[in-house]
Write a structure and sequence with these properties.
Residues 137-151 have a biased composition (Polar residues). It holds the Pfam family Oxidored_q2. Keywords: Cell membrane, Membrane, Transmembrane, Transmembrane helix. By secondary structure, the protein is mainly α. It has a domain at 2-57 and 71-109: Orthogonal Bundle (Helix Hairpins), CATH 1.10.287. The chain is built from 4 helices and no strands. Helix 1 packs antiparallel against helix 2 (25-46) and helix 2 runs antiparallel to helix 3. The longest helix is centred in the middle third of the chain and has 31 residues, at 74-104. The radius of gyration is 31 Å and the shape is elongated.
Length: 160
């Protein structure tokens, strides 16, 4: 059982570090979450390994009240508190990610990619807005032939 627990902690830690080194902010946030899960599992396992395996986590009537018969409750309380704090921090990081992505137009960690993506985004928006048809006065739909003073329709619906 200790080998499975150690393997799970190692896989979570390795995956978290790998994601932490990625260039995108969302992957970094997920890496931090995996690292916090690994630390929580490590802290929780510290209260259950060794002499505490198979022991009661709470006091029972009839058993002597010494530490040899009971599991340590402190790691369980620390792990529960860390889970709640980790969830709140992940939610906060995701809100900051969305705000940063809205301002910068990208979710890259370093600023050089954000500037390049911003230039591309601006040039794309400029070309998109240049390709849009210009607005017409109310009542004159785009592309519908409008009668000219001579009674003939001009191409594209514009007056000559």
């Amino acid at each position: 059982m200790e080998m499975v627990l150690a393997l799970a902690i190692g896989v979570l830690t390795g995956s978290g570090v790998w994601l932490l080194l990625r260039p995108r902010t969302f992957q970094v946030i997920m890496g931090l979450a995996l690292l916090s899960y690994a630390v929580n599992l490590f802290i929780f396992s510290m209260g259950r390994l060794g002499l505490a395996i198979g022991k009661e986590p709470v006091l029972q009537p009839g058993l002597p009240q010494d530490l040899a018969h009971y599991a340590d409750p402190m790691p369980q309380a620390l792990a529960l508190t860390a889970i709640v704090i980790g969830f709140a921090m992940t939610a906060l990081f995701l809100v900051v990610l969305l705000a940063s992505r809205g301002l910068a137009g990208t979710d890259h960690v370093d600023g050089t990619h954000a500037e390049d993506a911003g230039d591309w985004h601006d040039s794309y928006q400029d070309s998109y807005h240049d390709a849009l048809p210009r607005s017409t006065p109310a009542g004159q739909g785009q592309g519908t032939p409008q009668p000219s003073p001579s009674g003939l329709a001009s191409p594209g619906g514009r007056q000559p």
